[in-house]
Design a protein that fits this description.
- Helix content is 46%, strand content 16%.
- It has 10 helices and 12 strands.
- The protein has a 5-stranded antiparallel sheet, with helices on both faces. A 3-stranded antiparallel sheet has the order 6-8-7, with no helix packed on it.
- Helix 9 packs across helix 10 (268-299).
- The radius of gyration is 43 Å and the shape is flat.
Length: 315
C-alpha cells in the first residue's frame, strides 16, 4: 500500500498542476462555488470533459501557485487573476468557446430548500392557491401575515406574498412554511464571476453581447465623439459632414439671393421640377426667338429708291 502523501507533497503537486494548466490554457473562467455539493461538481466536470478542466482549491494556494508561475516563467499576465481569487471560488481552464462553456456550466444548477440562516440569493414569493394543508396549519400563515381562507377543508392563500427578500436571511418560520408547501425556491451551481482571456479580465456579461449590441455601442461612441468635436470646434472625421453643413447654412443666412436655395432645402422636389423645366425651356426658346425676329422684319417699312421719288440725281 502506497504511503499517504504529506501536506507538503500535496502542495508541491498542486503547484505543479496549476502551473502546467497556466502554460497550456489562455482562457479561464473564475467561478463562485457557494452551496455546490461534491456530486454536483463531479457532474459539471463530466459535462465539461474534453476541452475544459475544473480546478478547485484554497485561495492562498492558488495565489501562491500563480506567483510561482510568474516568477519562474517571467510571464506576469496571470498576476491579474490574483485579485479575483476571493471567497469560495474555483477556476475553469478551457480551450473552447467561452460563451458555450459558460452556458454549459449554467445547466448544472440544482434546486435547494430554504434553510434557516441562509442568505436568500433571490426574492421568494409564495403564489396564491390551495396549499393542501388542513386548517390546523393556519398558525404558520398567521405568524407571517399571509392572508388565507378555508376552502373545501384546506387552507388557501388569497394573494401572492413576498415571503423573503433578496439578501435577507431565512428565518425558522419561513423555512418551515416553504418546507410544508414543498417549495424549493433556491437553485445553486457554479456562477461565473469573471472571465480571463489572454491577459484581459472582463465581466461575464460581455459574453452575452451580440453583433447588434456592438454596432449599437459603436454608434453611441461615434455620436459622442461628434457632439464633443462640434462643441469644441475641433474637426474630426465623424464631425466633418456636420461642420460643412453648418457652414453652408451660415453662408445661406447672410446671402440675400439664397431664398430659392432655402426653398430647395426645405422641399427637394422643387429642385427636381426646376431641373426638368430648364432644358425644356431652352429647347423651345430658339423657334420662338426666330419667329419674333421674322415679325420684326415684316413690320419694318421698305426703303424708297431714287426712281420712286420721280427724279434722278443726274437729271
Amino acid at each position: 500500500m502506497a504511503p499517504k502523501p504529506t501536506k507538503a507533497e500535496k502542495k508541491v503537486a498542486y503547484d505543479a498542476k496549476l502551473c502546467k494548466l497556466l502554460e497550456e490554457y489562455t482562457q479561464i473562467l473564475v467561478v463562485n462555488a457557494d452551496n455546490v455539493g461534491s456530486n454536483q461538481l463531479q457532474n459539471i466536470r463530466r459535462g465539461l470533459r474534453g476541452d475544459s478542466i475544473v480546478l478547485m482549491g484554497k485561495n492562498t494556494m492558488m495565489k501562491r501557485s500563480v506567483r510561482m508561475h510568474a516568477e519562474s516563467t517571467g510571464n506576469n499576465v496571470y498576476l491579474s487573476l490574483i485579485p479575483l481569487l476571493v471567497g469560495n471560488v474555483g477556476l475553469i481552464f478551457t480551450k473552447g468557446d467561452l460563451k458555450e462553456v459558460s452556458e454549459e456550466v449554467a445547466k448544472y444548477k440544482v434546486g435547494a430548500p430554504a434553510r434557516v440562516g441562509l442568505v436568500a440569493p433571490i426574492d421568494v414569493v409564495v403564489p396564491p392557491g390551495n396549499t393542501g394543508l388542513d386548517p390546523s396549519q393556519t398558525s404558520f400563515f398567521q405568524v407571517l401575515n399571509i392572508p388565507t381562507k378555508i376552502n373545501k377543508g384546506t387552507v388557501e392563500i388569497i394573494t401572492p406574498v413576498e415571503l423573503i427578500k433578496k439578501g435577507d436571511k431565512v428565518g425558522s418560520s419561513e423555512a418551515a412554511l416553504l418546507s410544508k408547501l414543498g417549495i424549493r425556491p433556491f437553485s445553486y451551481g457554479l456562477v461565473v464571476l469573471s472571465v480571463y482571456d489572454n491577459g484581459s479580465v472582463f465581466s461575464p456579461e460581455v459574453l452575452d453581447l451580440t453583433e447588434d449590441d456592438l454596432v449599437e455601442k459603436f454608434a453611441i461612441g461615434v455620436s459622442m465623439v461628434t457632439a464633443l468635436s462640434l462643441a469644441i470646434s475641433y474637426p474630426t472625421l465623424a464631425a466633418a459632414p456636420h461642420m460643412f453643413i453648418n457652414a453652408y447654412k451660415n453662408v445661406l443666412s447672410v446671402v440675400p439671393e439664397a431664398d430659392k436655395v432655402k426653398e430647395y432645402l426645405k422641399d427637394p422636389s422643387k429642385f427636381a421640377v426646376a431641373a426638368v423645366a430648364a432644358p425644356a425651356a431652352g429647347a423651345g426658346g430658339a423657334p420662338a426667338a426666330a419667329a419674333a425676329k421674322e415679325e420684326e422684319k415684316k413690320e419694318e417699312p421698305a426703303e424708297e429708291s431714287d426712281d420712286d421719288m420721280g427724279f434722278s440725281l443726274f437729271d
